Amino acid sequence: MDKNDILFFVNVMFNGPMSGEQYDGFWNSMTTSPIALRWHKSGSVNWSKQQEIQKLVVKQILEMMTRADEDVSVLLRATDTLGSFVDGSTDRIQLAANEHAIPILIGLFKLNGEKTELKRTVCDVLMIVGEATGMFQMMAAKNIIGSLCLCLRAENPGRELEIGVVRLLLRLAQEARVYGQIVNEGMMSPLFRVIERNSSIKEVTMTVSTILADVSAFARKCKLDISPFVDSKCCRGQVLVLAATCHAQDAAVVDCTFRFFVNVSNNPVNLPHLINSETIEGLLSLYVLAGGTGYLAELAGHLVHGKSVNTITGYIGIAIEILCRVIPSSDVWRDETVEICNFVREMLLATDGADIVLNCGGKDLLEILHTYLAGPDVETSSGGAL
């Protein structure tokens, strides 16, 4: 199998009539032909020769992928073939990268029209390419975030493309630390739309919640005001709360959701469309459903600090409900239970707080406290006593 054989196979694959069976056998023909097997057994094909063959194949495939005027089915086949060729081989991935495969792949995101299947395939291939060291960083340097944002901003991106984009975005965030780019490209608003459209899908909720939590942590650490980058029409706190409530049994989803709100509560400018009484009450309800989260103490400190008790009566009512349920059933109080008690006590001391607490079930709580705290001191989970 010489250079002409390689070119023949690639050209026939893309330009000539080819049945599905012929297409499926393409790579087998490349690697298991009698000539190739004889070369392999005899050792007559050295490493440099193999590299030359692989380079020719990659160049031919990439050449087809740069023809934007080609039928989308040809572009799809070329992209899928590239993924199959580099899958499982870091050497082939590096070879493809050296031939500028990454900017060519990213360029396919910018093609006019929806072309959702093609763009979803590009996401999958880039995930494969990312298995080699440094590839995600290379993608970030080519501003892949802006291209992914274009995909999500499409009028009807489709569920499969959205899933492909957020999977790739999570890997980029973890490997290349592209949090600043996510903020600057205005990616947070499309992510809210993705989670709103796909809230019933656990993977989407988990992936998007993780990205948003990590981005908000980055902004908090940098003291970055994210208010110019979150559209008040689509970036509503209740969207995340409702999505997390659908998957309250998953501790990771719940923790990411609470972590996001703790971080944005420290934003230099208030974000009323994200943090409001409805969101706060929803978060505490989520806490009840999920059976606890380590971020409740921070929420009590950040989300309700300085707010009028009249605006968070639902939050107070749920807090009292939790205490009425937990205190009779446990001899050892978790630290979060202590934090809720401290929160209720803080509300009692606020203006109009006593009346609000009593109207939200405070009388029942008082009776329970008299009944269950009349004896010896109650031990907390940290070893102290109340």
Record the SSE blueprint.
Elements: H1 3-15, H2 20-24, H3 26-32, H4 34-42, H5 47-65, H6 72-86, H7 90-98, H8 101-108, H9 116-129, H10 135-141, H11 144-152, H12 159-176, H13 179-184, H14 188-197, H15 202-222, H16 237-246, H17 251-264, H18 277-290, H19 296-302, H20 313-326, E1 332-333, H21 335-349, H22 353-372, E2 379-380
Parallel strand pairs: 1-2
Helix pairs in contact: 1-5, 5-6, 6-9, 8-9, 9-12, 10-12, 11-12, 12-15, 14-15, 15-16, 15-17, 16-17, 16-18, 18-20, 19-21, 20-21, 20-22, 21-22
Overview of the structural elements:
InterPro entries: ARM-like (IPR011989), ARM-type_fold (IPR016024). The structure is a single chain. The chain has a domain at 304-386. The longest helix is centred in the middle third of the chain and has 21 residues, at 202-222. The chain is elongated and about 85 Å long. The protein has 22 helices and 2 strands. With 386 residues, it is mainly α. Helix content is 68%, strand content 1%. Residues 12-24 and 30-44 have low confidence and may be disordered. A two-stranded parallel sheet has the order 1-2.
Can you give keywords for this protein?
386 residues, mainly alpha, two-stranded parallel sheet, 22 helices
In short:
The protein is an all-alpha fold and 386 residues long.
Largest sheet: 2 strands, parallel
Strand order of the largest sheet: 1-2
Topology order in helix (H) and strand (E) letters: HHHHHHHHHHHHHHHHHHHHEHHE
Gyration radius, to the nearest Å? 28 Å
Distance between the termini: 82 Å
Shape: elongated
| Poorly predicted segments | 12-24, 30-44
Helix proportion: 55-70%
What is the residue-averaged pLDDT? 82
Give a count of the beta strands, DSSP E runs of length 2 or more. 2
Q: What is the percentage of strand-forming residues?
A: under 5%
Count every helix, treating DSSP H or I runs of 4 or more residues as helices.
22
Helix and strand composition category: mainly alpha
InterPro entries: ARM-like, ARM-type_fold
